[in-house]
């Protein structure tokens, strides 16, 4: 007899169902924004976070602050590299016309919509980079390693040191302070970066130069 089979189908709680409906509604609204006039492909959130890739975008205020710091540190006509920090790259691109150039090194190929400035990057192969990325040609490298692990930081540090002329701006967890000093010679700043969604781990900024973040 099959009458009771429906009882075995898992039911979503009303809370979960409401959250799911809200998520789909937000998604529809975002899709609607993308097709409407005036959509900015560089706005934070235009490419959504993928938690499976450990992606957490900065708040608008934090991205603006870090982008401003990168521009000041790079100087007039400076070159900026953003490693695994797409929301800072997006904020820099919103300043179109400013006297600097920027590229984004990122594992997520969705960011290839940004054309030649996108460089596929896997921290597991830290020096597997295009020949066009010559060593020590960036005035500042801004990086946010995707995972709070010594291995991830150490390998990302290889890329940072290869690319930078000297200046480094790093964002990672407060728990990585000792490792960040060991691998990159950076010190913690007073500025505390925030994310558009709250993270469980305390997050901090680090630099190896006198910055405007203190």
From TrEMBL:
Q: Does the keyword Methyltransferase apply?
A: yes
**Where does it reside?**
Cytoplasm
Q: Where are the transmembrane segments?
A: none
Q: Which Pfam families match?
A: N6-adenineMlase
The alphabetical list of record keywords is: Cytoplasm, Methyltransferase, Transferase
Q: What is its main location?
A: cytoplasm
Q: Where is coiled-coil annotated?
A: none
Return the GO cellular component terms, semicolon-separated: cytoplasm
Q: Which GO terms describe its biological process?
A: methylation
Q: What is this protein called?
A: EFMT1 methyltransferase
According to its UniProt entry, this protein's organism is Climacteris rufus (rufous treecreeper)
Name of the gene? Eef1akmt1
């Amino acid at each position: 007899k099959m009458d009771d089979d429906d009882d075995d189908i898992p039911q979503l709680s009303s809370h979960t169902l409401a959250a799911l409906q809200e998520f789909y509604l937000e998604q529809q609204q975002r899709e609607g924004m993308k097709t409407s006039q005036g959509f900015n492909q560089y706005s934070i959130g235009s490419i959504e976070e993928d938690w499976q890739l450990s992606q957490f975008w900065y708040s608008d205020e934090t991205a603006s602050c870090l982008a401003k710091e990168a521009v000041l540190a790079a100087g007039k006509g400076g070159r900026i590299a953003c490693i695994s920090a797409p929301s800072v790259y997006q904020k820099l691109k919103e300043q179109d016309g400013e006297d600097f150039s920027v590229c984004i090194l990122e594992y997520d190929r969705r960011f290839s919509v940004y054309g030649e400035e996108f460089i596929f990057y896997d921290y597991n192969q830290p020096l597997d980079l295009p020949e066009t990325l010559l060593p020590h040609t960036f005035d500042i490298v801004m990086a946010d390693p995707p995972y709070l692990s010594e291995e991830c930081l150490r390998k990302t540090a290889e890329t940072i040191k290869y690319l930078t002329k000297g200046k480094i701006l790093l964002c990672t967890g407060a728990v990585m302070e000792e490792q960040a000093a060991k691998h990159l010679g950076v010190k913690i700043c007073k500025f505390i970066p925030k994310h558009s969604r709250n993270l469980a781990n305390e997050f901090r900024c680090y630099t190896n130069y006198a910055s405007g973040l203190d």
